[in-house]
Amino acid sequence: MSICSSSDRFIHFAGNTICVSSTCPQVCRAIETHFAHCLGKTGSLLATYKITAIDGSGVSVSVNSSDLLLNVSLAQALQFLMQDSLIRLNGASVTHLIFHAAALGYRERGVILCGKSGSGKSTLAAWFTAAGMQYLTDEVISLPLDGEEISGFCRSVILKQGSAFVWRNLAAGNNILHLDDGSAWVPPTLLNPAAVCASITPRILLFPQYTAGAPLRVQRLTPAEALFQLMQCLVNARNFTDGGMSAAARLARQVAVYSLTYSDIESAAQWITRTVSNP
Amino acid sequence: MRDAIVPVAVDGFQIEMMDGEMVLLHPSRNIIIHGNQTSALIWQLCDGKRTVDEIVELLSAAYADAANDIRNDVPAAIQTLMDQGALTTR
After folding, report:
1. What is the pTM of this model?
2. Which CATH number fits domain A97-277: 3.40.50, 1.10.10, 1.10.3480, 3.30.420?
3. Which of B18, B57, B61 is nearest to B40 (CA)?
4. Cβ B19–A223 below 8 Å, yes or no?
5. In this complex, which of A225, A238, A253 lies closest to B34 when CB atoms are compared?
6. What single DSSP character describes residue A215?
7. Considering A73, A127, A269, B50, which has the largest number of Cβ atoms within 10 A of its Cβ?
8. 10 Å Cβ neighbour count for B4?
C-alpha cells in the first residue's frame, strides 16, 4: 500500500468526480483501499471533502468548506463519504443511467443483480467474486445513454453482519474495515485477486430477493416486466427528458431477465452459475 | 364508476411498448405502471373525448367474441389506471 504523497484523491463514476482531501495517513490508506478502483478524475468536479484528523482518534469532515461532521470516528467519516459521494455522483450523471444493482462478469458475459437494499445483491456479488467471477460493483451500475456496456462503482463490497460468512476466513490483515453496526467493507481483490472488471456487456439481468425460509423460485420476466422493475431501480430518471425509459428499454431487450427468490445462497448460486454458463 | 365520465390520460407520461405489453412512466411524479396490451389500448383510447361507455362500445364492436368480458373489464381497467395516476377525468 502506497503512502499518500499528495493530500488529494479523486473518485469518479458515471462521468463525474469528487475530491477527497486529507493529510491523515489512515484516511489516505482507507481511500486507496476501499475506493482503489474508482480513483481517477473525469468530467465535472462535484464536491470536495476535506477529512482532518483532530486530537485523539477523531476526524472532522467538511464538504465544500462547510463543516458537517466534527470529532467522529474514521469509520463514521468514511461511511458518510461513501453515502454522500454516491448520492452526488449518481444524481449528477446526465450521460449515464444509474441503477441500484450489483454487477459481475463471467467469461465476458455480464450479470446484473438489480435490487434495493436488503435484496441480497451485495452478498451474492461477494459470494460469486470469491468463487471466481469478476467484480464490477455491489451497489450501482452505469449504462451510457448510447452504449451497451455497463460499468460499476467498483468500491469495496459492503457486507452486513449476516453475510460475514463470505469474508471471515480471509487472511486480510487490516484491509477489511469493520463498522460499529457489524458490517464490513471488503476489497474485492481480497475475495479474488483478479476480480476487478471495468466494463462488460450484460447478458443476464436478475432481480434477486432474499426471503428467509423461502424455497428457490425463479421466474422468467418479459421485457416489459423487466423494464417495469428496472425503472424502479433507476436512480437518476429525472435527469432525462424521457425519464431514461428508452435506454432502459434497450437494456431490458438485450438481456435474459429473471426474478429470483431465495433463502439459501448456495442453491441460488448454483442456478445462477448454470444459467450464466449457458451460451 | 359512472360510465358517462370522460377519462383522459394524464399529461407527462411516456409509454414504451414491448412485445405487446406496456410500461408507463411519469418521470416527474415518479409513477411507473406495467400493463398488458389491453391496458395499453384502453389508456390510449382515453383521449378526453370518449366516455367510458363509448370506449366499451368501441372495444365490444372490435372484439365481439369478448363483449361480455369487455363490459366488465374495461371500466375496472380504467378505474385501476385512475387509481395508479395514469388517467383523470374531464
Report:
1. 0.89
2. 3.40.50
3. B18
4. yes
5. A225
6. P
7. A127
8. 9
Whether chain B has a CB inside 8 Å of the CB on A256: the answer is no
Residue with cell 461477494: A126
Structural domain boundaries of chain A? 8-92, 97-277
Confidence bin at B2 (pLDDT 50/70/90): low
Optimal mutation site among A221, A228, A229, interface B, most CBs of chain B within 10 A: A228
Q: Which residues of chain A from 171 to 230 reach within 8 Å of chain B, CB to CB?
A: 222-225, 227-228
User: Which chain A residues have a beta carbon less than 8 Å from that of B22?
Assistant: 224
pLDDT of the residue at A1: 35
pLDDT at residue A116, as a whole number = 81
B30-63: pLDDT as tens digits? 899 999 989 999 999 999 999 999 999 999 999 9
In the predicted model, residues of chain A with pLDDT beneath 50 are: 1-5
Interface check B29 vs A, CB under 8 A: no
A73: its cell numbers = 470516528
Q: What is the pLDDT of residue A172?
A: 60
Q: B21 in contact with A at a CB cutoff of 8 Å?
A: yes
Q: Report yes or no: B81 and B42 within 8 Å, Cβ to Cβ.
A: yes
Is the Cβ of A253 closer than 8 Å to some Cβ of chain B? yes
Q: How far is CA A239 from CA A141, A234, B32, B68, in A?
A: 16, 11, 16, 45
Backbone angles phi, psi at A149, to 5 degrees: -85, 140
Chain B residues with CB-CB distance to A240 below 8 A: 27
- What pLDDT shows up at residue B70? 93
SS3 (DSSP) at A179: coil
Complex ipTM: 0.80
